[in-house]
Design a protein that fits this description.
The chain is of the alpha/beta class. 30% of the residues lie in helices and 22% in strands. It is built from five helices and six strands. The protein has helices at 13-16, 22-38, 91-97, 110-123, 144-154; strands at 4-9, 43-48, 76-80, 102-108, 127-136, 165-168. Helix 4 links the parallel strand 4 and strand 5 (127-136). It is globular, with a radius of gyration of 15 Å. It starts with a strand and ends in an 8-residue tail after the last strand.
Length: 176
């Protein structure tokens, strides 16, 4: 099985406040963390630094990663400014240094940072496992449940000649 790393995207207090099924998603992320750590798989966090939304600005109390799924010693935390977690960050170099070929993705927000980072990872040659019950968002153009269901469907059907995206529930994850 290819070497996998868990990538937790923007599991920050400000985004989890009011997010759809936030406590259930935190529990799924926690399960993914436990499974990754049980086999010593790398854990990488992305943390969004918003330019103008005060609760997500660097240093704000709600900018921090939720303490229920907070990084531990040895985990990598990468700050970002764009929805795409690879844009002008050390994410790709970190994954290459860790010899990762499969990225297990969880976090927030489904239609923005989760979507953009999954698509970028695929374009950079990584296989992706989307934690189907481990990402969320708020109601917007569509209700959050529809947005999540749509992304679990659409991302797993992206065409790529060499890489794939699969969706699995946290309780089914294997890091191997």
């Amino acid at each position: 099985m290819p070497r996998a790393a868990l990538l937790i995207i923007d599991a920050q207090i400000a985004l989890l406040q009011g997010a759809y099924l936030a406590d259930d998603v935190v529990a799924a992320i926690d399960e993914a963390l436990r499974r990754a750590r049980d086999v010593k798989a790398p854990v990488v966090y992305l943390r969004h630094c918003h330019a103008s939304f005060a609760p997500m600005m660097k240093g704000a109390g709600t900018w921090e990663i939720d303490p229920r799924v907070a990084p531990q010693d040895g985990d990598v935390v990468i700050d970002k400014r764009a929805s795409d977690g690879f844009w002008e960050t050390a994410l790709e170099a970190t994954m290459r240094d860790l010899e990762v070929s499969r990225v297990v993705v969880a976090g927030l927000q489904t239609e923005f940072c989760v979507d953009a980072t999954c698509r970028a990872a695929l374009s950079k040659g990584f296989d992706i496992t989307l934690v189907a019950d481990g990402h969320t968002t708020g109601d917007a153009v569509t209700d959050a449940a529809t947005t999540i269901r749509h992304h679990n469907y659409a991302l797993t059907r992206l065409a790529h000649p060499e890489c794939s995206v699969v969706a699995q529930r946290a309780a089914e994850l294997e890091f191997g």
